[in-house]
Amino acid sequence: MLIVGNGKLFTRDKEFPYEKDGAVVINGTEILALGKTGDMKSKYPEADFIDAKGGVIMPAFINTHEHIYSAFARGLSIKGHNPQGFLDILDGQWWTIDRHLSLNQTKYSAVDTMIGCIKSGVTTIFDHHASYGAITDSLFKIAEASKELGMRSCLCYEVSDRDGKDKAKEAVMENENFIKYALADDSDMLAGMMGMHAQFTISDETMELAAAHKPAEVGYHIHVAEGIEDLHDCLRKYGKRIVDRLMDFNILGDMSLLAHCIYINGHEMELIKDTKTMVVHNPESNMGNACGCPPTMELVKRGILTGLGTDGYTHDMIESYKVANVLHKHHLCDPNAAWGEVPTMLFENNAKIAGRYFKKPIGVLKPGAAADVIVVDYDPPTQMDENNINSHILFGMMGHDVVTTIGNGKILMKDREITVIDAEQAMAKCREESAKLWKSING
Ligand SMILES: [Zn+2]
Q1: Whether the Cβ atoms of residue 8 and residue 54 lie closer than 8 Å to each other
Q2: Residue 375 CB partners (closer than 8 Å, separation 6+)
Q3: Mean pLDDT across the stretch 380-400?
Q4: DSSP labels for 48-88?
Q5: Rounded CA gap, 285 and 260, in Å?
Q6: How far is the CA of 258 from the centre of ligand 1 (A)?
Q7: d(CA 279, ligand 1 centre) in Å
Q8: Among 111, 164, 176, 218, which residue's Cβ finds the most Cβ atoms within 10 Å?
């Protein structure tokens, strides 16, 4: 048993939102009780104690759109790569990297990503993976890293015809094999989805193949209308809009997750809403790729379950929160935009999305919820309680302020030290593998 106490406890549970000198009691993988530090210590005297030292104790973050394959891009300059648009960025950078990834490099890309997540207080990720140089077993390599690092992971492989029909088929099979493996796993720490790159790289034949091999319990994770090129391609080839094409292949539904949705219209929003399909917004990536600003505020207003991700741009969900906050104010020329919507996406909607794939409640501290807890080193000069905590997170915190991360009851990082693996050794291995990857790309 473990008590994390002596901190300002924010639970995200409406029944008991805040305790000034609070503690959370963890038993195994679940939260057992919450209350005042003194009360919890005297009620559970045998428990180990983690001292939050007056900092903030809150639920760990969930990232609903990550890309492990992009881990070794940091610092890489690809010879001759000078993108003129979104398609150049995809083919010249991301697809070039994923075509060169070996299985071992995928594994260490996952290790690096997960260390970054833990250091930013993230314990649950929805990853969208591609490694067209080594497809089969790639999701199992990532799952190995998930187990070693204690990261709750919903994984998929992005099916695409971009490297030919044989590889598209291999990608479908990798998804099917992994989904079945995850469905049989009872740890509540692994899940799988049928990953799809984006409709503009997937033929009707491959859409049908994916549908035929997708176990009924899970949905799809697909990029939608990230660039205007995706919409133009769909209109030109099929005479219909993107979400209509997805509807025709039964890709929409309450277990499916659409990333981006920048170039969708009101009719497509209605289809997404009517089918209870989930959407994930990645503000920093959309801005960095010069793709445009999605109508995210409109999606939330219409009641579409919209979460917040990072698209591999960062592992820090507070960074994504900060960027989403300013993006929509700037885009709409409205200083009142996004105050409520973005924290709802980050805290409530990401938890609801995770709730469709994992059994125990995540993203909330209450008895019976998964014991995913972080301690943040934060001591503000102003008053703070449950009514203004979001403003404190937005303007006062960043991921690097997380000092302790607990995932599913296990201490993953304490006082900024990763405790589940030898991080120094792992990072040395990452540098070795990334050097090999860079050499294979640039020669
Ligand atoms: Zn993405």
Answers
A1: yes
A2: 4, 7, 50, 52, 55, 56, 57, 402, 403, 404
A3: 98
A4: EEEE-TT-EEEEPEEEEEE-GGGGGGTT---TT---SSHHH
A5: 9
A6: 10
A7: 12
A8: 111
- Buried b / exposed e over 160-190, threshold 16 CB at 10 Å, is bbbbeeebbbbbbbbbbbbbeebeeeeeebb
The per-residue pLDDT for 18 is 98
8 Å CB contact between 135 and 174: yes
What pLDDT band is residue 386 in, cutting at 50, 70 and 90?
very high
Q: Measure 18 CA to ligand 1 centroid, in angstroms.
A: 35
pLDDT per residue as tens digits for the range 73-101: 999 999 999 999 999 999 999 999 999 99
- Ligand 1 geometric centre to CA of 393 (Å): 25
Using one digit for the tens of pLDDT, what is the confidence trace for 269-285? 999 999 999 999 999 99
- pLDDT classification of 127: cutoffs 50, 70, 90: very high
What is the Å distance from ligand 1's center to 312 Cα? 7
3-class DSSP state of 331: helix
Q: List residues bridging with 157 in a β-sheet.
A: 129
DSSP, res 157: B
Partners of 370 in the β-ladder = 30
Tell me, in angstroms, the distance from the centre of ligand 1 to residue 362's CA: 23
* Amino acid, res. 317: M
Say what the pLDDT of residue 352 is: 98
Ligand 1 centroid – CA 77 distance (Å): 20
The arithmetic mean of pLDDT across residues 61-81, rounded, is: 97
Q: How far is the CA of 246 from the centre of ligand 1 (A)?
A: 17
Distance, C-alpha 389 to centroid of its chain: 22
CA of 224 to the centre of ligand 1 (A): 9
* Distance (Å) from CA 260 to ligand 1 centroid: 8
First to last CA, the chain: 52
The closest of 161, 383, 125 to 257, measured between CA atoms, is: 125
Query: Tell me: the pLDDT tens digits for 290-318?
Result: 999 999 999 999 999 999 999 999 999 99
Whole-number Å distance, alpha carbon 67 to ligand 1 midpoint, is 6
Output the CA 137–ligand 1 centroid distance in Å: 21
| Cβ-based neighbour number of residue 414 at 10 Å | 14
The answer to whether 331 touches 293, Cβ cutoff 8 Å, is yes
Two structure tokens written together for 2: 């473990």
Which helix (H) or strand (E) is 194 found in, with range? strand 194-198
Q: Are 287 and 250 in contact (CB under 8 A)?
A: no
- What's the gap in Å between 167 CA and the centre of ligand 1? 20
Q: Using CA atoms, how far apart are residues 149 and 111, in angstroms rounded to an integer?
A: 7
User: DSSP assignment, residue 344?
Assistant: I
